[in-house]
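Good day; I would like, with your permission, to put a structural problem before you. What I wish to show you is a protein chain and, alongside it, a tokenised description of its three-dimensional fold. Thank you for your consideration; the sequence and its tokens are set out here:
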Amino acid sequence: MRLARPALAALFAMLLSSAPVSPAQAEGRPSGGGFGLALLSPGQHADVMKRVESYAQLETFLKACGRPPALESRFRRLVRGCIEPATVNTLAQHFRRALAVRAHYRWDCVSASGRQMIARSEEAIRTTVADVTRLCQIAR
């Protein structure tokens, strides 16, 4: 399993910095609702969804190894007031569908490489949480 840049941070990067969001778009975001997927191009939207799927794989892996990261509930808390609730719900639904697809996967949690992957996965989550926290504070 290869970890891409964290999906949640990628969404923020696309919504808040790397996506070409014009001042008019930023001003036009719903008051109190935050940024949404509507600000993304179709290609960026597809990329975000792919990244959400990679996070479902990460969640499935860590949960199977007895270290469930509870990404959806953490994400919801972090982005309250920063990302539109409808966008959060869309991403969560996609995440849950991707979890269901991966529910039958078997993972190596005990070998040295499996333990190393657990550590890298958890570090990726810590980085994502820090990125999302920082980016959401900037957006508020």
Observations:
- Residues 65 and 109 are 5 Å apart (CA to CA).
- Residues 1-8, 13-32 have pLDDT under 50 and may be disordered.
- The longest helix spans residues 112-139.
- DSSP finds six helices and no strands in the chain.
